[in-house]
Amino acid sequence: MAQEMDGSLSEVRARVGASHGITDLAHKLHFYDRWARDYDQDVATLQYSAPRLAVDCLTQALPGPPHATLILDVACGTGLVAAELQARGFLQLHGVDGSPGMLEQARARGLYQHLSLCILGQEPLPSPEGGLVCLTTRTNPSNLRYKEELEATLDRLEQDREWERLVAWTVDRWELATSKLEVVPGTSDSDGFISGVVYLYRKQEVAKVEGVRPSAQPPAGL
Fold it and tell me: Helices 2-20 and 25-45 sit at what angle, rounded to 10 degrees?
């Protein structure tokens, strides 16, 4: 059994590592379309913690009742964040993603009130006014170029007064690394994790959400 698990982990690391190496957007989206059916199982093998961490950030930043707050889940994938959100009482959920295959899996969960095919930075997000915007990304070496491009887009949205940043929290234990080159410094090669960051924004078109304030500190336990 241990050998089977090790083999499975090696296969998942190879598959996820291949996705990390794709820089062309069209090729990456095609990869995600083909990967969508196995995505949840693969990221579970890598102990992927972004959905839980994202919702930790939301619950810490929004101390009031969650059921009335609209959440826009950017790059929602198969809907793993939505599952965590619903479990903690968030009921108004919209999602966007650039992969039709991923959106098909997200739609099958039946948790989103609205799902749209959209790529942040290339087209306006099809979201109603107001609400909070949640997105995440990795901070491992192979993703740094994308992270820089993402943050440049987010900065432009702030400069245009469309969004206000509430949270940008970096976490070390994001998911298991796919190779030694991706391991967070200070962790062992055999059990090393890559790091990631959770972003939480508030849309600026409507009045501020009561009780939500920008935070410079991570939630307890992160």
Answer: 160
